[in-house]
Amino acid sequence: MKIEQIYTGCLAQGAYYIESEGEAAIVDPLRETGPYLRRAHESGADIKYIFETHFHADFVSGHVTLSKETGAPIVYGPLANPSFEAIIAEDQQEFVLGKIRIRALHTPGHTMESTTYLLIDENGKDHAIFSGDTLFLGDVGRPDLAQKAADMTQEQLAGMLFDSLRSKIMPLADDVIVYPAHGAGSACGKNMMKETVDTLGNQKKMNYALRADMTREEFIREVTEGLLPPPKYFPANVKLNREGYEDLGEILERGTRALSPEAFEARANETAAVILDVRHQDEFVKGHIPRSIFIGLKGDFAPWVGALIADVKQPILLVTPAGNEEETVTRLSRVGFDNTLGYLEGGFESWIASGKETDSLESEAPEEISEILAKKENQVFDVRKESEFAAEHLEDAVNTPLSVLNDHLAEFPSDKPFYVYCAGGYRSVIAASILKSRGIHNLVDIAGGFTAMKKACLPTTDFVCPSTRQS
């Protein structure tokens, strides 16, 4: 028996390859199916089943394509209602894979169809669970995403999740291995651990939601409090996962068309496409196409695209580092952004060579503007998460998290300079690019973000510069 976790860091997502006696199963595959096909080919195995724990909201699964390519059926748990052919398993139904069995445990709460798959080894021993978004390491799935579809409140769904955990998962042995669908960084939970595999016994000790003495009311309160609004692209991804989607090969063919600067500009004007620049933030700061949006590939690229470009059908044109065109289109497609129309051939350098208009972003190191900031004459905006801001921040800074920036554009001054910072410089450049695309140019990015400000010993709350700290 083999179990392999195939983890994608930028989505904090875990897919799984399971194999026994030449038969393989895939749990929660990503949209690009190549890694699973290659893995099965390496072992000389045939993919027999494709298990989906639920209709994912934060990424587009590869289940439909993988089923077409292999002939393997897609398996969902009870209450799933896909538009394509699939096995809708009954609670406790088992599927034979070589010498092992996989049992469907219906665990509603995150969504109504949410199902945990229990792997029973060749000796009949419970070995592992593939818990999807029902149980994470350190947390459980948020119960507010499926309210509309289920015609229930988040409190009612949280109550169902409480029952699912205590009737289906917590009675399992402590040595059962937990393989969740997501890790730290995912928007599907609040407080996930950085580890991606653990034992159920340790989770019973570490996970607040699995406290043995926890009442139903306590669980509902703790699971629902502090939930941030989900990214706006989540419903669109659920729809794609439930109804099916365009083949990735066709999306890649369309999205990786090389366009000359003239053709690129014409295409942008004809389609009202967003020009998405995915280079490093330092390159964007130095020069970029006017009104283009920066979201760099080196950060949490796909989730930020989903959070900030709400419409997955939005036409997109790309400015990429050379050789990263296919990767960019693929990563966009993982979150349902399939309408990429091509990329700028020769990159930003070709745009400059063509003599077309360019723009840049004013960015200053903290030590260069410390005196200006000390006068407190200009507003400073912190675009980090609320939790980061609460821990420590520049004195008198205003917290405007990047995830909700588009809802607060009117709050930025238009008549005098203001400053923007994040933790290290990635998110603040994204924010600055969005503001500039909306005609707000009187801003300065604080290079290096809060990390650099602490090193420069600028006045912050809950932080004392080493040179002034009292014993």
UniProtKB/TrEMBL annotation:
Molecular function terms from GO: metal ion binding; sulfur dioxygenase activity
The residues covered by the Rhodanese domain are 269-360, 374-462
Arranged from A to Z, the UniProt key words for this protein are: Metal-binding
Classify the source by domain of life: Bacteria
Biological process per Gene Ontology, one example term: hydrogen sulfide metabolic process
Sorted alphabetically, which SUPFAM superfamilies does this protein's record hold?
Answer: Metallo-hydrolase/oxidoreductase, Rhodanese/Cell cycle control phosphatase
Name one matching Pfam family. Lactamase_B
What name does the UniProt record give this protein?
Answer: MBL fold metallo-hydrolase
Organism, by scientific name, is: Lentiprolixibacter aurantiacus
Q: What is the lineage of its organism?
A: Bacteria, Pseudomonadati, Bacteroidota, Flavobacteriia, Flavobacteriales
